[in-house]
Amino acid sequence: MNDLNTGAATEAVSKACPLPEPRSAGSIPAASSEGGVVVAAAGPDSAAARVEMVGRLEESGDLGAGPVRDALLALRREVLMRQAYVRRSDPDELPPRWELLDWARPQDRDELCRLLHSGDSVPVQHAGEPMLGRSPGVRSGGTMTAMSSTMGMTAGLIEVLDLRPGQRVLDVGTGAGVTAGVMCFVCGDDGVVTLDVDQHVGDAVRASLAALGYRPTVVTGDGRDGWPARAGYDRIFVSFSVPSIPPALVDQLAPGGLALMTVATSSPSWPGLAVITKSSTGQVHAELRGVEFGHRAGTGIDGFEQVFLSAKFRQQIAAGGGRWTRRSRLVPPSVTDRGAWLALGALRPGLVRDYGAEDLTIGAPSCGSWMRARPAGTGRWKVTVDGPRDIWAELHEVAALWRAAGSPSTYRIDIGSSGAQQVTTTGGHLSWVLPAPSPTPGEAP
After folding, report:
1. Which one of 157, 204, 378, 428 has the largest count of C-beta atoms within 10 Å of its C-beta?
2. Which amino acids are annotated catalytic?
3. Which of 154, 176, 310 is nearest to 237 (CA)?
């Protein structure tokens, strides 16, 4: 699952979506109203861009031949996301400025085409706004509250789902409707339920999918509760991260079913992918895999807040002399040792890695602690540490436990009869307890 935010990807899409030739008003593709969405007729540029995007996914190993590939080639992204946002301010500039582009406007179509097929995440809703009938233009401040995730991650996860015709599928976290669209294409829309906490999101996706000829069940509610009216589901897919597995989703999984979701800690740096299966006799098996990318944290979950490194803190780390600097023969886990970093996020909460830094850089925003480490010759590292936490020592304490447990990349999740969830390895050499699932609003604790 690779992030496709690369210069090569942007260049390829630019070729598929060139600047439009000047046209007279009469030659602009006519717009039609389908399912409540005004859709400008798609030209060959968007079709070529889809082919380019799918080709890059295949080259990166995120997508293989099969029904998911066929769906991504067929689904017109300019219909699913006829409006989307681009950021017009620098990443650390406050307040942020965003511009809503609209496919119906010829002057927006080239940039929007490149955005939709870049492989990057695509923001589609600002500050919980209604999404039908919006006027294009600039918005200032606020946050993006719905988006289409990066296509490398999305394609890889959907392939793990092993979708098949006729399956009953629950899509939790509707977003831009890309996942629901693929499910409709592969499984048939009769068996697809897509659920989002925001009715505005559901209304928009219902209309865009109808414009493509699909009419799944689109519902509004807390994703942790699932949608029991259509259970049991052969597949459940959650597109936001949770601190632990919601029991309702396990209950609604059909015998022989499979569920996927990101289980995250207070750090967004080291996510885990929970893979839950239910046997034909109803036995539940769950495992947690260390992965490179995961979904963002869900909203409205009490006590589940992820921490980030501000621009000011990153600059402080880069320039800081630290409490001490020394050379060390300890070797940190490599970036591909996902299981070690997953354990670090769980056992030493509040740590965040700066992946944009040249050195191995980790900070703890809550107390201002940080560490920097860089290779300094064969078998040596130059390490600088600052603040009350010795993050270098914490890293190696967890790494030692991980190596003693056999350097696992995957852990077992034991779900007790009381609902308690423990992540553990064979023999129990390395383990931690996931937070107790919090009650949803209106539910007794």
Report:
1. 204
2. 149
3. 154
- Say which CATH class 151-290 falls into: alpha beta
- Is 80 exceeded by the pLDDT of residue 28? no
Tens digit of each residue's pLDDT (9 = 90 or more) over 205-232: 999 999 999 999 999 999 999 999 999 9
What local confidence, expressed as pLDDT, does residue 419 receive? 81
Q: Where are the domains of the chain?
A: 7-146, 151-290, 311-404
pLDDT of residue 92: 83
CATH architecture of the domain with range 311-404? 2-Layer Sandwich (3.30)
pTM: 0.89
